[in-house]
Write a structure and sequence with these properties.
Elements: H1 3-17, H2 21-34, E1 52-56, H3 62-71, E2 74-78, H4 81-87, E3 94-97, H5 103-111, E4 116-120, H6 125-131, E5 140-144, H7 160-170, E6 175-179, H8 190-210
Helix pairs in contact: 7-8
The chain binds adenosine-5'-triphosphate and 2-amino-6-hydroxymethyl-7,8-dihydro-3H-pteridin-4-one.
Adenosine-5'-triphosphate binds near residues 58, 101, 162, 181 and 199.
Organism: Haloarcula rubra
Protein name: 6-hydroxymethyl-7,8-dihydropterin pyrophosphokinase
Family: Belongs to the archaeal 6-HMPDK family.
Length: about 230
């Protein structure tokens, strides 16, 4: 997705959560500066084009559905889904994170040659400054939700999980398979619930742009407020 398409949706998210665009831009520039001396990972190397890609979220169903991830051509893990997949023996091809829960996992993955999309936003600058310098930059893909720069990318998306889906779409995935997604998880707090509601709306937008139907939205579409209505 190009930023021109993403920007109106981004503005709606900023308004809804009360985030400032300036904070996101400063975070983006900190991430860019931290990696300025390094060559970062080129996502086309992942070979997502025409692939079936598992987009693994950190909902409670992950372990019981992990076989579906193992069957995909590529496995993208959102945040703590990376640890949980490792624990059940499923290899992760790429992690997507805003560093808010398991930054050590991201370090270990970059050190062992697995790319990590590291997302900078207005509320994670201390984590960016603390952890990114400890990563192997050759396996970092820096991302932002604000306007992209020459070195910090924006493929679309908001939460770690839906950003993984927009990333797979951007790099030409043929089919997306959702594993570990539970929008009605009773154990999430109010802020996370609101973020998951946005993730759901964003996936609904993505499937309609692709002319696709994501199985994770089956039975839910009637209750989704389309993103287009917020624009
Ligand atoms: N029931 C669920 N609980 C948590 N995450 C879920 C759930 N269902 C789907 N997800 C997806 O899994 C991703 C990873 O969740 P996790 O709780 O590990 O990370 P997080 O750092 O809190 O995520 P984020 O910062 O994006 O909110 C979420 O970003 C979301 O896209
Ligand atoms: N400014 C800001 N941006 C975000 C935030 C957040 O807490 N603040 N959380 C996200 C996913 O959890 C993604 N983007």
């Amino acid at each position: 997705m190009e930023f021109d398409t993403w920007e109106p949706v981004y503005t709606a998210i900023l308004d809804d959560f009360g985030y400032g665009r300036g904070g996101d831009e400063r975070a983006r520039d900190r991430l860019g500066a931290t990696l300025a001396e390094s060559e970062t990972y080129r996502p086309s190397r992942l070979g997502l084009e025409s692939a079936t890609v598992a987009i693994v979220g950190a909902g409670p169903s992950l372990e019981s559905e992990a076989d579906r991830a193992a069957e995909a051509d590529a496995v993208l893990a959102a945040s703590t889904a990376a640890d949980r997949l490792r624990d059940v023996g499923v290899a992760v091809d790429c992690m997507v994170t805003d560093l808010d829960k398991n930054p050590e996992t991201a370090r270990e993955l970059t050190e062992s040659g697995t790319p990590v999309l590291v997302h900078a936003h207005g509320d994670n600058v201390p984590a960016v400054e603390t952890y990114v310098p400890t990563y192997d930059a050759a396996f970092v893909v820096p991302t932002t939700q604000a306007a992209p720069t020459d070195t910090v990318h924006n493929f679309g998306g908001f939460t770690d999980g839906d950003r993984a889906a927009f990333f797979a779409d951007h790099f030409g995935a043929e089919a997306l398979r959702f594993v570990g997604w539970n929008f009605d998880d009773p154990d999430v707090g109010p802020e996370k619930r609101r973020k998951l509601a946005w993730a759901e709306r964003l996936l609904h937008w993505l499937e309609s742009r692709r002319g696709d139907r994501f199985d994770v939205l089956d039975g839910r579409r009637d209750g989704i407020d389309p993103v287009e209505r917020s624009l």
